[in-house]
Amino acid sequence: MFYYTVNNPNDPVSTEIVKANRRDLEFWRRLRPSDDEDLATSINKICARTGLSRKLIAACLFSVCFLPQIPNFLNLVEKLGHLDMARINAITKAGKKVPKEKRELFDAYLVNYLTPTTEDQCLPQATSISAMMRKFISHYCPIDEPSPTEAKDALRFRRNRRGSISITLDASDSEATEVQAALEQMAKDKKTSLGAALLNIVRGLDTKVVLNTYGTDGTPEYLEGGTWLTKQQMEFWKNRIICTQELDNEMCSYTKQYQPTKKIRTLIKGRHTTCSVPGCNVHVDQCQLDHIIPWAQGGPTTPWNIHPLCVFHHNQKTDGRLECYPLPDGTILFVIDGIPIRSVPDGPLSRSHRTWGTKFGAYMERKVAA
């Protein structure tokens, strides 16, 4: 039987977590007000008795009301007991943006995404689930909304008491990624701070910024930095592609050097969005590329032996307090306190989330094998 580590039937702690998840869901079902009760009064009563925030209460009540709209997913949640309210709330928050005629598709998407496909699989974090929900909506329920930067008050200046001015910019994920990349490149070129880099750009100094998109030549789906692109953003970014590189065969690439090549780095950042340690949300751009089998022990510099680790977990692994092993299917097996956990890559080049260039036979073979 396949299972996530949080609902491992042979682990007593996991068994308690499953019970707690089911208990929490039932708790909010019991607290659901009747349809004719006053909304604000109902939330106030629950807030006074639980000490929970009104925002959280409203989110949990909405979840128990919305879940019957996606019955197959609800059956999965009740069967496995693997999702806590934070993850369920992230899903239902996205679900309310899905039109009724697309909810059956959304239901199937959720079941496919949150059904374990191997033993000891790591359950996706709420942030990863939210990202995948945004991906679904942008692909199947696109909404023509103006960019946040187009709003009249998107850029705000506030004078502080000490005489300086703080600047706030509201931007979409892809726009923010572009701004950050430009500032970081300028700071690197001029060996200065990000603030001084901004001034350099305003004053007309040039800097060359290279950002990778992942997808086909004419359909970029994901922007380096952690953003699944909407259809509108795809149209924008595909016109900015100046060169392409084939990464399908790079899993077997190899270098004699300790440092990965540029292509290997691009591949790893396309396979992982965060530190590969289960439960860690540190972004891949803030991680170090680590040899799973250590270089000093003969571990090769090749994609199957390279993964991102944040500084904290890299130090743990170096100290021998964290064990990990590469597996033939591209996942990574971590052993934490004697417990095996499979870390499944969740980036655009990962096996589970790659959506382009998929052949029918390969897709069906993968589904049957799962």
Automatic annotation (TrEMBL):
One term of GO molecular function: nucleic acid binding
Record-annotated HNH nuclease domain positions: 263-315
Pfam families according to UniProt: HNH
Protein name: HNH nuclease domain-containing protein
Provenance organism: Corynebacterium deserti GIMN1.010
